[in-house]
Amino acid sequence: xxxxxxxxxxxxxxxxxxxxxxxxxLDDVKAKGFVQCGVSQGLPGFSNPDxxxxxxxxxxxxxxxxxxAVFGDATKVKYTPLSAKERFTALQSGEVDVLxxxxxxxxxxxxxxxxxxxxxxxxxxxxxxxxxxxxxxxxLELSGASVCTNTxxxxxxxxxxxxxxxxxxxxxxxxxxxxxxxxxxxxxRCDVYTTDASGLYAQRLKLTNPADHTVLPExxxxxxxxxxxxxxxxxxxxxxxxxxxxxxNAEELGITSANADEMKGSENPAIKRVLGVDxxxxxxxxxxxxxxxxxxxxxxxYGEVFNRNVxxxxxxxxxxxxxxxxxxxGLQYAPPIR
Amino acid sequence: xxxxDSQTSMNRAETGGLEVAYVxxxxxxxxxxxxxxxxxxxxxxxNLFSSIFNTALTLFSLYILYLTVPGIIKWVLTDAVWxxxxxxxxxxxxQGGALPDDWKAACWPYVGAxxxxxxxxxYPDAELWRVNLTLVMFFVGLVPMLMPSLPFKRENIIFMxxxxxxxxxxxxxxxxxxxxxxxxxxxxxxxxxxKFWVDFLIVSLIICxxxxxxxxxxxxxxxxxxxxxxxxxxxxxxxxxxxxxxxxLTPVETDLWGGFVMTLVIAVTGIVAALPLGIxxxxxxxxxxxxxxxxxxxxxxxxxxxxxxxxxxxxxxMLPLFLPDGVTFDKLLRALIGVALFSSAYMAxxxxxxxxxxxxxxxxxxxxxxxxxxQSMRLIIMPQALKIVIPGIVNTFIGLFKDTTxxxxxxxxxxxxxxxxxxxxxxxxxxxxxxxxYVFCAFVFFLFCFGxxxxxxxxxxxxxxxxx
Lengths: 338, 468
Fold this sequence. Notes:
The complex is a heterodimer. In chain A, 37% of the residues lie in helices and 19% in strands. Chain A is an alpha/beta fold. Chain A folds into 2 domains: 20-123 and 224-318, D-Maltodextrin-Binding Protein, domain 2 (3-Layer(aba) Sandwich); 126-221, 3-Layer(aba) Sandwich (D-Maltodextrin-Binding Protein, domain 2). In chain A, the strands form 3 sheets. In chain A, strands 1, 4, 5, 6, 7 and 13 form a 6-stranded mixed sheet that branches. In chain A, strands 10-9-11-8-12 form a 5-stranded mixed sheet, sandwiched between helices. In chain A, helix 3 (58-71) crosses helix 13 (291-298). Chain B is mainly α. Chain B has 17 helices and no strands. The longest helix of chain B is centred in the C-terminal third of the chain and has 31 residues, at 433-463. Among the domains of chain B are: 1-30, no CATH class; 110-123 and 254-463, Orthogonal Bundle (MetI-like fold). At the A-B interface, helix 1, strand 2, strand 4, helix 4 and helix 7 of A face helix 4, helix 11, helix 12 and helix 16 of B.
């Protein structure tokens, strides 16, 4: 029956493709030869195409990592830009294999959408930016402020929660697009600009005089961003989850894309296990035993990925903060590979 | 003139053809009109300062121009940055660059760096010649068709409506579609390309038989209708065959399509589909057959009653949930179908306006000379009706062309979508980035829409048979 429908649609012009949303995503991915990765319609540092048209960013590198693990070739990824509204449908319907699109892990999304969050590759939170000449040092001094934000996002709700719980007066000035919000804030139509902290750094570049503005220390919400897969396919879920963990473990053990080859000769058993010299960890995931070596060699460890896309040397210049390794006081912690 | 001439000849007649000294033989040379009525001054007096109110309006408009034009020229041309490698080229000192702090103007190197993406989207570099070839075919086919003085209109139209779409499809997507049959159960014949053609043959035979039976039942000669249907199915088979042939082109998924090429693909598909569908729907709505007329009315009113955004949104968010597991439609295809159906409903109403504007005598005259329905429509009614509604048709086209930008809502990266996407590149992030790209976008859209509207005025003048 299914075949009949598929082939009927085949008559219709353009590539009407039949992607299977069956349980074994890994088998499907291996069969078609690439990972279909759902990304954003452009978020600096997370998933955005550069002027040559190549997708870059932390979320993109996660997909490349998955491809490196499955095929040993990080380039075998195809990207589907998705709007915030259609992203979950695209994953549910099998249009994409993994949704790596700065998606906040919440209880509702995890439990009711038939999806699973495979870890957190960026700990974000909502922050405030104000003009320095306001003399505000803390968000608690913001009573009576007008707040610029995007319409219809959780940021607006978070602002309402925060100001109400602290008994502060405020006025929302909301716009549809991020560029409009920044332009309005820059033009002085509101006192405060609020969005995810990573976004504040990106949008700061679009201010007339970035040095006149400061980001307040308060982070008023938890926004753990991570890759999402369909529920009920534990093999694929494990693979995506461990792709991220492999990157974190590699950073912790000091394995980088530059020294991955020489690290293979290391005496440290933990490094040997990560790089597939010892043990059969890849086979258990359904991929080659050099899976983690391929990820690190071709994409890099978590620190490299972070620095390349959003780190201090990029225009965004975001510090590691909560995304530092647990050994450095951050939250990035991966279970050991053993 | 003639009055003077006749007077002169009368004078000659009265004097018996003799030359009389006191009668002037030639006209006094005309004096140039007063300077106030001719030339630049006259034109200005007539058009700009003809009354107190108009003078006030003129002065007000001049004032507005004085306020805006120098600023625009400064922003777009004189103050703009024309070369650079990254955001620092367009950043002020405060932003980390070298420009003065109060600088605010266009940052053209950013548009330059992204121009390829704005035009082609993320189409692979190695395959760009295919897009270029398609564009060349499009304009080479379009330009002679738009110039009424050139011959071979018939061949031209066949090329544009028949050959070009198939060629463009094969070139852009790579062709080589896999057909594996749709009718016979797998038990009888395993799915394969051959099975598809067997299925197709069976369906064609059924359709031909159906047409024949219908014509028989209505006491008409079934032969020509059946032959016509067979030819139509044959053409369809040829089109499908060309689409399924492997030309050795690398397949390029529609995910990689984008930019202005995608805008053109959507607009041209919408326009090409809308006109014939719209004409059929308009005729259907005025038909005496209740089933046809009811269907047309429901179709038109449904699509006119739903905003295009809703249609696109339903097709991208809801449709996948209704489809069985594992079946997905190409996103671009969904949008194309939505846009085509939507615009055909509007086109139908425009054409219906033309049909209703024709006097009843035209219909009766066509019947009186013994033409059947389709002949009278083709030879008498439609040429007149379509001529009347040229402004409406072009209006719909322009609207459709601009509406294509709505597809960025469902994640398709058309021209505007590509521009929005480029804003996320922090390499070029400056306060003027968004403004520059939107000005560029507006300029390109204006060029195309203005071109369409001028062409429609030209066609109206040309087809004007001064009945009005």
